[in-house]
């Protein structure tokens, strides 16, 4: 019995659209990470980048369950002494909801060149409109 392994040259990539409106941010991020990685495919190979393109729309309508809006913090460092900045999830979802989703998806991908290449195939939009209609993306339901 032999195992089928995917090759980088033979990977066929498809486009998928995920609507995040009214859905938990983490659940949306898990589905997007699995599609970007290619884990839904029959010939998934861990050491080959065989994932698809993912478009996430309505990121501003994604929800955070529980008390995460007030308790979850996003941190960034300026590099200077005392330069640690923190932002509450409520403010992040109001101003930069696409970054919050991107941050969640990035944390679920491998920390190597496969994960970095997968992030280039992720497209995020705050509204319901996107400019990838020419690629004929399929809707992916959660």
Note down, in words, how this protein is organized.
The structure is a single chain. This protein is α/β, with parallel strands linked by helices. The chain has five helices and six strands. It has helices at residues 25-37, 68-71, 89-95, 97-107, 113-119, and strands spanning 15-19, 53-57, 73-77, 84-88, 122-124, 138-139. Helix 1 links the parallel strand 1 (15-19) and strand 2. Helix 1 packs across helix 4 (97-107). The longest helix has 13 residues, at 25-37. The chain is globular, with a radius of gyration of 17 Å. 19% of the residues are buried.
What's the CATH topology name?
Ribosomal Protein L13p, Chain: A
Rg on CA atoms, Å:
17 Å
The neighbouring-strand order within the major sheet is 5-2-1-6
Q: Class in CATH?
A: Alpha Beta
Q: Give the integer mean of the pLDDT values.
A: 95
N-to-C series of helices and strands? EHEHEEHHHEE
Tally of strands: 6
CATH architecture name: Alpha-Beta Complex
By CATH's scheme, which homologous superfamily applies? Ribosomal protein L13
The helicity comes to 25-40%
How many individual helices?
A: 5
> What is the terminal separation in angstroms?
34 Å
Strand content: 15-25%
Report the major sheet. 4 strands, parallel
**Bulk shape:** globular
As for the number of domains, it is 1
Which regions have little confidence, pLDDT < 50, spanning 5+ residues?
none
Assign the structural class, choosing from mainly alpha, mainly beta, alpha/beta, alpha+beta, or little secondary structure.
Answer: alpha/beta
């Amino acid at each position: 019995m032999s195992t089928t392994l995917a090759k980088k040259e033979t990977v066929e990539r498809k486009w998928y659209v995920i609507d995040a409106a009214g859905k938990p941010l983490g659940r949306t991020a898990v589905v997007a990470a699995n599609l970007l990685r290619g884990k839904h495919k029959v010939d998934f190979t861990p050491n080959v980048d065989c994932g698809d393109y993912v478009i996430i729309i309505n990121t501003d309508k994604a929800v955070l369950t529980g008390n995460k809006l007030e308790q979850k913090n996003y941190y960034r460092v300026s590099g200077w002494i005392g330069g640690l900045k923190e932002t509450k999830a409520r403010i992040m979802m109001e101003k930069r909801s696409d970054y919050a989703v991107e941050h969640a998806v990035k944390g679920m991908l491998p920390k190597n060149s496969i994960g970095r290449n997968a992030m280039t195939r992720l497209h995020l939009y705050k509204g319901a409109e996107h400019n990838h209609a020419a690629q004929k993306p399929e809707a992916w339901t959660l």
